[in-house]
Design a protein that fits this description.
By secondary structure, this protein is of the alpha/beta class. The chain contains ten helices and ten strands. It has helices at about 65-70, 75-85, 105-120, 135-145, 165-170, 185-195, 215-230, 255, 265-280, 290-305; strands spanning about 15, 30, 50-55, 90-95, 125-130, 155, 175-180, 205, 240-245, 285-290. The chain is globular.
Length: about 300
């Protein structure tokens, strides 16, 4: 592995979303990254963003979320609109959970859902496609094509399935989430593989994988800190902004077994403390599932921006 150190490094900037002036239809675009120091040490707290997940198939969303959002769960476009206008999310994370069905082949619905969600929200989109290698090529092609010009953040690329994500990003002008299993060396290796396919450094966002608080998060935190420190020390292949999506947080026993009257509060507490800790470790974007987590995170970020 070649030495990619550069003197005077900072976290590389990545732009997400495209306004009409930039060739897209979003009302806002964001620049993440650009930090020259550790988190919350006086630099760029305005660039910390909260994304709310919206699923196209609610069967794969946590029960506590389905119960809270009610009928929205059956309408991803309305759910996306509420994510922005009711819950205050900075970004919408559209998760194509329908692709998790056995023998999925409804590729035509991917583009239709993308069009509906793009029309429903003015926020930039994070798009999670298939997690099955045999579906990836077609799923990401449909997602990428439907969002052409919008500068989506497509995920996720992993070491054994990154070419399809990279191809869609290159063809349609999007950025890529590079996910590795809580290992700094594997994170760097994947970034190098993506660059070898033609993805530039300013279109890669690192996802070092985030375990739930109390269920492995300490390992994630350690790796995120090491990634940030390596990037600031001059390793250009690790000097990218990070994203955290602690998918298992609302599936932990404490949430599943909470009394019905306490379940939302328990879910939000578990998700908030995991997500905020990810910000402290260096994440530029955290993705949450419970709508009330968005408000709580935005409140604490506002305090840090003063």
């Amino acid at each position: 592995m070649t030495n990619s150190s550069e003197p005077g490094s900072e976290v590389r900037e990545v732009r997400l979303g495209a306004t009409r002036a930039e060739g897209g239809t979003r009302e806002v675009s964001y620049v993440i990254g650009g930090e020259r120091d550790l988190p919350f040490l006086g630099n760029r707290p305005d660039r910390l963003l909260v994304a709310l997940e919206v699923c196209d198939d609610p069967r794969f969303s946590p029960p506590v979320v389905r119960d809270y959002v009610g009928d929205l769960a059956n309408n991803p476009d309305e759910w996306a609109r509420a994510a922005e206008r009711t819950y205050g999310a900075d970004l919408v994370r559209l998760n194509f959970t329908s692709t998790k069905q056995r023998r999925f082949d409804a590729f035509g619905e991917i583009a239709a859902t993308m069009d509906q969600v793009l029309a429903a929200t003015t926020r930039p989109l994070i798009v999670e496609g298939s997690s099955e290698p045999e579906l990836d090529s077609e799923v990401f092609r449909r997602c990428g094509e439907a969002g052409e010009g919008e500068r989506l953040l497509l995920g996720t690329a992993e070491a054994d399935r990154y070419r399809s994500v990279a191809a869609a990003a290159l063809a349609y002008g999007h950025a890529v989430i590079a996910q590795s299993p809580i290992d700094i060396n594997l994170a760097k290796q994947l970034n190098i593989l993506l660059r070898e396919t033609g993805i530039p450094r300013d279109r890669i966002v690192i996802d070092p994988y985030t375990g739930a608080l109390g269920y492995g998060f300490e390992y994630s935190y350690s790796v995120m800190e090491r990634v940030r420190l390596a990037g600031l020390a001059g390793d250009a292949d690790l000097a990218m902004p990070m994203i955290s999506a602690p998918a298992d947080t609302l599936s932990v026993r404490e949430v599943r077994e909470a009394a019905p009257a306490d379940r939302d509060a328990m879910a939000v507490a578990w998700e908030f403390y995991t997500a905020y800790s990810a910000f402290v470790a260096g994440a530029s974007i955290v993705c949450v599932r419970h709508p009330l987590s968005v408000k709580k995170l935005r409140e604490v970020l506002e305090v840090n921006r003063r």
